[in-house]
């Protein structure tokens, strides 16, 4: 079974970072230049539904790209979806080019218009590619789960075979010695006792890995502290290593931090794991001291918006490539080599079950970073972003606020057809559709911006959210409506005042912003 890499390639990281804006731009370009001007509202119902449907699909594709850009999705997921979108669109564009080359433009567009045909084909490729990318990401996640299950079975088999059988052999050998003259009786009794403890420890370890566990929010502080205390107690009798705990001053620090031995991670650093989490850090410390000969070990904790990390720093021998593969890729060695080994395999299995990741950074000091999700994100690699349920709330709130603002502008000034002119058609229907599209996009940007700004604690209540939305709406009136929209209108041949800042527009945008903030919070949305 192939391994599933946890460290994406450079191309995947780039596409994961910029894939959302690329998809949004692609959807907008297709809609603006191939769909909007081809929309038919005066023909039969079939033609109206077909053309308006293409417009809605194109704008929805752009919204999906914005959601990918601001949402809490993993790099690999965004890369898969955006890559599928680009490949699907490219394949359809190539098919169109071949068809045009073979038949001519006139024959292609004779029935329903070349622009709409091109748009529908490209949109079908883009949407189909995104669906295929989503399936690919889901299959990768499922394959990783299957691989962890198989590795768990292999790990248990190897651990029992290596530890228990070896201990049983020692017990059997010393039992034979006890039958003799008793010269080495005390030594044999001690060896049998240690072997019995080894068997007991192995059985307990097997139970820890074999249990499925249950997802829950547990304190990273408690897990790290438990592991350090356990290993310090063991080191007191059997080891000469120094094991310390370093922690940030608070639970929202975003960089590495070093404290003193008496410091502890902030209790607010909770992650999605279970009561087996301390085992991860116990095994990493155990491997650093017992296998790689570390004399000093410390654990640093850091916090991000959707993830928290604990880094085991030691001065031991740097991990080998095989040891790094065990931790970073979950690749189990072919042979029962304890140095490659059982402790690392246990840590890798547990972190994988928590949807976390492990990264090894060798150097003067080896840094093994365990990164775990703090919230219900569909990937632990999400650094910042709006969670999927809040994305849906933002879309619903954006549509509601758009309806309120559109109704106000429709009755007060009748300016909605001007919005349609941005897309080449001065139509009230097109104006409504594109206005709601703008409203949803700016709603997503509002939620993402407010979440990243650190204002989450101040805008949780309806009044604070409405005030923040009011400020956002005013800013859009000044920039988007006052500057960008007149320039856009002039570019498409419509005369417009620059800047264009009528009071009625300010009232409409203020009403939109206040409604957006209130609606989002009322739907249960959060800014954290």
Annotate the secondary structure layout.
Blueprint lengths: L9 H26 L9 H26 L4 H29 L1 H4 L5 H65 L6 H26 L5 E4 H19 L3 E4 L24 E4 L3 H14 L5 E8 L3 E8 L6 H9 L12 H12 L3 E5 L4 E8 L14 H25 L3 H6 L6 H25 L9 H30 L11 H20 L6
Parallel strand pairs: 2-4
Antiparallel strand pairs: 1-3, 4-5, 5-7, 6-7
Helix pairs in contact: 1-2, 1-3, 1-5, 2-5, 2-13, 3-5, 5-6, 5-10, 7-8, 8-10, 9-10, 11-13, 11-15, 14-15
Describe this structure in words.
Helix 2 runs parallel beside helix 5 and helix 14 crosses helix 15. This protein has 528 residues and is α+β, with helices and mostly antiparallel strands. The radius of gyration is 30 Å and the shape is elongated. It is built from 15 helices and seven strands. The strands form two sheets. It has a five-stranded mixed β-sheet. The chain has a two-stranded antiparallel sheet with strand order 1-3.
- Work out the radius of gyration: 30 Å
- The arrangement of helices and strands along the chain is HHHHHHEHEEHEEHHEEHHHHH
Task: Give a quick account of the main beta sheet: strands, pairing sense, barrel closure.
Answer: 5 strands, mixed
- Structural class of the helix and strand makeup? alpha+beta
Stretches with pLDDT under 50, minimum 5 residues: 1-7, 108-112, 247-266, 376-384
Give a brief outline of the structure.
Helices cover 64% and strands 8% of the residues. With 528 residues, it is of the alpha+beta class.
Please name the defining characteristics of this protein.
single chain; 528 residues; alpha+beta; two-stranded antiparallel ribbon; 7 strands
